[in-house]
Every structure is written in structure tokens, then in C-alpha cells.
Amino acid sequence: xxxxxxxxxxxxxxxxxxxxxxxxxxxxxxxxxxxxxxxxxxxxxxxxxxxxxxxxxxxxxxxxxxxxxxxxxxxxxxxxxxxxxxxxxxxxxxxxxxxxxxxxxxxxxxxxxxxxxxxxxxxxxxxxxxxxxxxxxxxxxxxxxxxxxxxxxxxxxxxxxxxxxxxxxxxxxxxxxxxxxxxxxxxxxxxxxxxxxxxxxxxxxxxxxxxxxxxxxxxxxxxxxxxxxxxxxxxxxx
Length: 238
What we know:
The protein is of the alpha+beta class. The protein folds into two domains: 8-103, 2-Layer Sandwich (Translation, Eukaryotic Peptide Chain Release Factor Subunit 1, Chain A); 107-232, Nucleotidyltransferase, domain 5 (2-Layer Sandwich), CATH 3.30.420.60. The chain has eight helices and ten strands. Strand 6 (107-114) and strand 7 (117-124) form a beta hairpin.
């Protein structure tokens, strides 16, 4: 039997009523399966579950936070915003472990960067307890060639380096007071920009905090930072 699924996202504020609805889900052989990150295809097959569509199996295997699978009259796969801790199987629709995870007010550091704008901060749950949003001058690329282009590129590279070093200082200012209590850290922005920042910023490399998946963000403003916190806490439902 192949089981059907749909796809959508649920914000943190909507997860309690959503899971309450799932808990009323009935069926002849209800099942709840909690899977931590790192689950393999062979491990899934060893559980003798109903046949899963390929995209569902891939979503479980690829998830950096694990998954919760609810099989009943209606079927749901929930990819939570933070990692499932242990593998558990219930012969019923049991949403309590997932609800407990969603209700935990994790302390998370945020470092969101585009060349020219940044946002750094710390949030407890969805509440920002420390943050700063700012901009910096970094010239765009030029298509012209010759020595003037080379000078322009060197100038741009120096500006980018100075900008990222300032971001590092602001990150240290806002994250250092919480470093011993941080549960996770979220980076956002172009991957190459984040990699360059981390090379220039030993402080970030020294945090030793579990990382959430890199988030795509537009150029940074206060509302982008706030919406990123909401997105960070959203669960993907398939």
C-alpha cells in the first residue's frame, strides 16, 4: 500500500492545534515513528513500515533535524525545526514528543549576512533578547576589464573584508554573553559569504554550537530578521 501525502508549513504558534487535530486521527493500525537525524534507507526498511513514497523516504534521510511520521486514516510526515533526540515507535498516534520539542524555548544565535547588510542576535524561543541590524558599503561587481578593473576588484575585496570583520565584532558583542547557554546557531545568506565570514571570525568557529541548516534570506532589515526567527521555528509537513 502506498500512502498519500500533501506539503505545507506550520508556524510554531499553529503547531499545538495542528498536532491536536492529528491526535484525533484514527485508523485500523495507527502508528507514530520518531526518527533522529542520520536515518538511512536500510534503517527505514528494517522497521517494516507501510510502503513510503520515494520523496518521503528522501525527506527523512535528508533531514538534518529528523522527522516524525504519523500513519493513520490520514498520513503526515513532520520535519521539525529542531532535532528529534531519539528513535521511538508508538502503536498509536502520539504527538506528545513532538509537541514537547516545539514548546521548548531553545536559545539560538542568529548570524545573517549579505555583502552590504547583516543581522546578528540571540532569541529565546521566538523572542529576540539581543540583536543588531546594519549595513556597510561594498561596491558591486564590474564588467570592465584592464588594470582599472583589477584595482576596483581589490578595493571591493578590501571593503568586503572590512565589512565582514565588523559583522564579526557585532556577532561577538551579541553572542558572547550567551555562548555558554546557546543551544543552536543559525546562519543565513549566500553560502560563500557565510564561509568567508567564518574564516575571518575565529569567535564564530570557537562557539562549538550545533548548527541549523543554512537559511536563504534577502538583504537584511529588521523585518527580515524577525521573519527569519518565525521561519526558523516553522515545521515542514509532508
